[in-house]
Nicotinamidase
Amino acid sequence: MKALLLIDIQNGFCPGGNLPVPDGNQVVPVANTLIDSGQYDLIVASQDWHPAGHGSFASAHPGKKPFEMGTLSGKPQMMWPDHCVQGTADAELHPDLHVGDIDFIQQKGQNPSVDSYSAFRDNDQAALTGLAAYLRDKGVTELDLCGLATDYCVKFSALDAVDMLPGVNVRFIEDASRGIDPVGVKTAIDEMRTRGVTVIDSKDALA
Ligand SMILES: [Zn+2]
């Protein structure tokens, strides 16, 4: 059973959104090619889904500006612009994404006192989203993932997939992903590779 996991391909992370990843919209046609390829038995998307005033937002911390480090529940936390607030257009999946072919959407980031980069669990690793159990129940043995942003939500999702789905072959599709910081992207790809994630391009996934 082969699954595709599309990470946070949302308006908020594309140009024009509140937390745009450079060229984030360019993952959409590649993701659509993967969705339409017939290679996958199961297609899942994650969706950053914050309540207004979420603790990862700089606006929730007096004196803090976006992209500064701060703290949340006593732990270091990047201060983000307000983004992907539940029910807003910013939180919707990109309108060109073939959402009609997505089998399941895993929302994340609802708890205001902890951030959730990974689609599998909160950053403090205390609360699970349920996605690992869902994929296990479906009998997934191969998991390809891609999306936004490589150096945050994609990386943490890939590493959690390796940790939480033992025996599943996890692959990161590089050209179907974009990151926030070029240095961070390189580090993230190195880290994924070191931890057992295979790095591929969409042509490998389609072969
Ligand atoms: Zn977020």
Summary: Residues 48, 50, 56, 83-84, 109 surround zinc ion (CB under 6 Å).
